[in-house]
Every structure is written in C-alpha cells, then in structure tokens.
Specification:
The chain is α+β, with helices and mostly antiparallel strands. 43% of the residues lie in helices and 18% in strands. It has 5 helices and 7 strands; from the N terminus they run αβααβααβββββ. 9% of the residues are buried.
Length: 159
C-alpha cells in the first residue's frame, strides 16, 4: 500500500464526512452514574453509624468523604457531542478535497489504522470510526487471496 493510497483513503473519508455529516454523529449520554455494590454497602454503613446513640462525628465525616469519592469514581463524562459539533463546523466550511489538508486532518482525525488486508480505518476526534477498503490489484503467484472468511496464500503454503 502506497502513501498515495493512504492519503486518498483519508481524503475520501473526509469528503464523505463533509458530504454526509450524519456519518460522524455519535450517540450516548453526556454523563452517567453507575453505582456499584460497594457504594450501596458504604451508604448502609454510614446509615448504621448515624443510628447509634454514641456518634463518632469524625469517623462518620471520614466515611462520607470516602463515599463521595467512590460515587465520583463511578461517574463518566463524554465530550464527544462537543467534538462532533466541532468537526461538523470545520468540515462545513470546506469544499471537496483533492489533496490532503493537514490543518483539517489535525482538527478532525485522531488516529488511522492500516490493516494488512488494505483496510484503512480513520478515527475522528469524537471516537467515530469510518473504514475505507482498498482492493489489491497486484495479483501474482505469492499474493494473498481471501475467499470467504479464511485468508490463504495463493501458493497454498508451498515453498
């Protein structure tokens, strides 16, 4: 796979995203809270400590802070919606690309994966992945041919 093929695939993905912004839409919630059984146990322990006649305020305060930390650790936040809007805004102002715009590339794309099966996968900054598959044209006696799921060498493993 040549550099030109890789750049062409990235340009195609960027042009596709600009022409069809729904490709880069991401779903999901902005923030979530998923308590664990440890949090429920900690809350029950605090409740038990406050029900006794001799209250140890320092220990209860310490346990409340511990519970708050545990709850905080169970919270998640996703800024993918904001990043999606940023990508859309950047792509909106661009016409169809014929060459790779490095500024646009840096503003929109976080990673590129290239597989040995000529699949190029572009990850946008919001976490959305778009694949571009390029077909190999250089068939020879030692090229790989994939028929169905298994991929076998054209010489069937012969030396």
């Amino acid at each position: 796979m040549t550099d030109q093929m890789i750049m062409g695939a990235v340009i195609t993905v960027l042009n596709s995203a600009a022409a069809n912004p729904s490709l880069i839409e991401c779903g999901g919630e902005v923030s979530t809270y998923s308590p664990t059984s440890d949090i429920v146990s900690q809350q029950n322990e605090i409740n038990r400590m406050t029900d006794v006649s001799q209250i140890d305020f320092e220990r209860i305060k310490s346990e409340i802070f511990k519970l708050a930390e545990m709850k905080y650790d169970c919270c998640t936040y996703s800024d993918s919606q904001q990043k999606t809007e940023k990508i859309k805004a950047v792509l909106k102002d661009h016409e169809q690309l014929n060459t790779l715009d490095i500024g646009l590339f840096k503003a929109c794309i976080s990673r590129i994966w290239i597989s040995h099966f000529c699949t190029i996968e572009v990850e946008f900054i919001n976490g959305i992945h778009i694949k571009n598959i390029t077909e190999r044209n250089d068939k020879n006696a030692h090229s790989s041919e994939c028929n169905g799921n298994p991929c076998e060498s054209a010489d069937n493993g012969k030396p």
